[in-house]
Specification:
Layout lengths: L1 H22 L14 E5 L4 H12 L3 E6 L2 H15 L4 E5 L5 H14 L5 E4 L17 H23 L3 E6 L26 H23 L4 E7 L6 H4 L6 H11 L3 H13 L10 E3 L2 E3 L8 H14 L4
Parallel strand pairs: 1-2, 1-4, 2-3, 4-5, 5-6, 6-7
Antiparallel strand pairs: 7-8
The structure holds 2-acetamido-2-deoxy-beta-D-glucopyranose (NAG).
The site of 2-acetamido-2-deoxy-beta-D-glucopyranose has 3 residues, from loops.
Length: 317
């Protein structure tokens, strides 16, 4: 009898959790069109990035899909063109694990585009070994922080001349589990036993938050806004690759609490189009609502120092 009531209580809690997750999903209801606007989305070939790009293309924008893999990038382009009827969608090669590739991509945009109205730094990786890129930076930090930092910096003049324009950084609530260790930004102090991709990922996401705050400070009065967001717990490739043995059994239930890629894209879309956000900058959002940041994540000195260290590591100065 006791065991049965225990089981019932667990099932009821689970159903309530699933209902809570389903009912709190924020959906962007704004129907604003984007004719004449140029939008760049990184990592637009799949998941949240693909859904974000598709929605913005449906609003009439000129879309640049910045992805590493040409085949996947051009396939995504074809799907978006046929779903939206917008032919002004283009694949451009961008490999964030190479700063030379970031520079080449940015130079190509500056040469060929008259404007950039919206830049969405969406691409990110989770499962990554502690290895170095050709730039001698830890591959996780480079893909999730240093490369988007460089890309944004290189495109700033064009974003400023296109103002009002918006920069959107896809972070994650995982930022809360981290703190910046300036002695160990590139995971040099980690060994096989201490390194985990989770630890590395959380630090990169905290870097996205600090970068958003510092960039906001630097952009005051330019008409360019910058905000960051948590897309939610989204059912994408990342989840498919979770390898814990137990996870296989609970996955079908966990899936019910997760967002689809379309739902995960809603906050990025909201930040890109909502007219009421025209002058809103330096904030963190989730489910299409502004959320507070932890006190630690609002430390302006750390944000400023991270900016300066990043500038020197990507050889911007
Ligand atoms: C944003 O600021 C500009 C200039 O101060 C103002 O004209 C505009 O109404 C503001 N927009 C919103 C949505 O508050």
């Amino acid at each position: 009898m006791f065991l049965i009531s225990l089981a019932v209580i667990h099932i009821v809690c689970l159903i309530l959790l699933i209902l809570y997750c389903r009912l709190t999903v924020g959906i962007c209801k704004c129907s604003k069109h984007l004719y004449g606007k140029v939008v760049i989305v990184t990592g637009a070939n799949s998941g949240v990035g693909f859904e974000t790009a598709k929605d913005l293309a449906a609003r009439g924008a000129r879309l640049i899909l910045a992805c590493r893999n040409e085949e996947r990038g051009t396939t995504a382009r074809e799907k978006i063109v046929s779903a939206t009827g917008n032919n002004d969608v283009h694949y451009r090669h961008l490999d964030l694990a190479s700063l030379a590739s970031v520079r080449k991509f940015a130079a190509d945009i500056i040469k060929n585009e008259k404007r950039v109205d919206i830049l969405i730094n969406n691409a990110g990786i989770f499962y990554v070994d502690n290895i170095k890129t050709e730039d001698n930076l830890f591959v996780g930090m480079q893909t999730n922080h240093f490369a988007p930092f460089l890309l944004t910096s290189l495109l700033l003049p064009l974003l400023k001349s296109s103002a009002p324009s918006r920069i959107i950084n896809v972070a994650s609530t995982s930022y809360m589990r981290s703190k910046i260790d300036f002695e160990n930004l590139n995971m040099e102090l980690e060994n096989k036993d201490t390194y985990t991709c989770h630890k590395a990922y959380c630090m990169t996401k905290l870097c996205n938050v600090y970068t958003t705050l510092e960039l906001d400070r630097r952009l005051r009065g330019t008409g360019v806004t910058v905000n960051c967001l948590h897309p939610g717990f989204v059912d994408t490739n990342i989840v498919t690759t979770i390898q814990w043995p137990l996870f296989r059994f609970i996955k079908p239930v966990v899936r019910l609490t997760m967002k689809s890629a379309w739902e995960g894209a809603q906050t990025s879309i909201y930040l890109a189009v909502a007219p009421e956000l025209e002058n809103v900058s330096g904030h963190y959002f989730s489910d299409c609502r502004e959320r507070g940041l932890t006190k630690k994540a609002q430390d302006v000195d750390i944000a400023k120092k991270l900016w300066e260290v990043s500038e020197s590591l990507v050889k911007l100065k």
